[in-house]
Amino acid sequence: MTAKLGEEFNDRLSRVPLNLTSTGVDPFGLDPQWTKYALASVAFLHRHYFRSEVFGAENLPTGRVLVVANHSGQLPFDATLIGAALFMDVEPPRFMRAMVEKWTQTLPFVSLLFSRIGQVVGVPENARMLLENDEALLVFPEGARGISKTFDKRYQLVDFGLGFMRLALETNTPIVPVAVIGGEEQYVSVGNFEALAKFLRMPFLPILPQLALPFGALPLPTRYRIYFGEPMRFSGDPDDDDAIIEEKVFVVRAAIQAMVHRGLNARKSIFF
To answer: How far apart are CA 134 and CA 143, in angstroms?
Structure first.
């Protein structure tokens, strides 16, 4: 599969920095072979299905970095495509690490898959260790509230959690704000099956009318546009009161919301 993607893909694989143990995986279980085939699948989505456009890839620094983005789309294709951009469009190429919801560890096979392709349970200890290993860590401060927005709330950022800022201050890590355009239209959600979601122990279960259509389970082939902003650095005590941390978080949230607005104004079509 990877051979069909050409020499560039394989060259990038050879240049990704890795921190492997004697068992051939990294301390969190990332397996380069699993990740290679996952990226091969993602490359198709990135280049051909969603036809992603990437702006500002040169803004991603080498070494440790927190990639902080808006969240949307009912299913985490936004995370997938940001990961594809870090591998296929950024120099040097990176394997993206991301924090996943704890409930995903209860899903058969999914927990193993996430581990093998570098995604880890979203607890501060894991995030801290990844950054100390100079990884690129993706964070969605909106959490499940962001990905589960209904269509009428599209591209309206909900409140950010504060944890990512405390982490950045503690580890002296730059923050790269990212705006993702295109995810809000891939699945048109009109509500949430709250009772059923609670019964299934899921954070949400969207009501998607398009599922009634032929091939409606597939996301619509909206065109993704991913904007990487300039790195932001913050100083201060990570144990400061919430009010002080909130001021810093507001700066990041405002930067991403402004990038989202500019991206929406710049696009001429959802699909092209």
So the answer is: 23
- Residue-wise pLDDT for 210-252, tens only, equals 888 888 899 999 999 999 999 999 999 999 999 999 999 999 9
Q: Given this model, what pLDDT does residue 257 score?
A: 97
Helices marked H in the chain: 7-15, 32-44, 77-88, 110-116, 124-132, 144-147, 163-171, 194-199, 242-266
The answer to pTM > 0.85 is yes
Cβ(252)–Cβ(162) under 8 Å?
Answer: no
**Angstrom distances, CA of residue 147 to CA of 176, 187, 237:** 20, 11, 30
| 158 secondary structure, DSSP code | -
- Least Cα distance to 69 among 199, 170, 182, 151 occurs for 182
195 contacts: CB under 8 Å, gap ≥ 6 = none
CATH number of this structure's domain 3-266, picked from the four choices 1.25.40, 1.10.10, 3.90.580, 3.40.1130 = 3.40.1130
